Amino acid sequence: MRIIGVVAKLSGGKAEDAKPGEVEAAPAFPPHGIRSTGAPPFSLGAADGCDIIRPRLMASEGAVVERPDDRTASVLRFATELVAWVATPWALSRYSWLLAVLSVVVLIGLPALFSTPGDKAHVIIPVPGWGTILLVLLQLVAAVISAWLVWPTWAAVLVSVLAAVTLVTERLRWRWLIAAERRPE
User: Which of 24, 133, 159, 167 has the fewest Cβ atoms surrounding its Cβ within 10 A?
Assistant: First the structure.
């Protein structure tokens, strides 16, 4: 296992308090899984595909929660948003052009206006983390339903799989968003 940079102090301290190369032995446990109260508050990088030791998301225990690296989740989320932005107005245009325009305003405008501090660089109207999660869920639901209404079955199945994978990859970000004490990157 390779360790890069300063590692988190495994005895409950913050990453800033740790010295380079300071590591303690720890029992193995599944990455990003449910852990018992006796499990250490960190994840070993090699177990979950990265080369660092990083703090676990422990908002319920009062620890400060670091923003997770969500580049993959961001790409999948954006792809799903694009589908929602195209398919939803397309589906609603059958009933009213006004509804189609309104859907674009809602699907693009609301996330642009409302965001959680620390999640985006520029926050216009701050909302709690659960508000951002609801906006993402709105995009996912709109993409899936609209795809099934207007696109061929094979395309709707692909969109459904994309939305399901997006839900899975968003878990860490959502835990960070609902944490009581968040720390941006």
Answer: 24
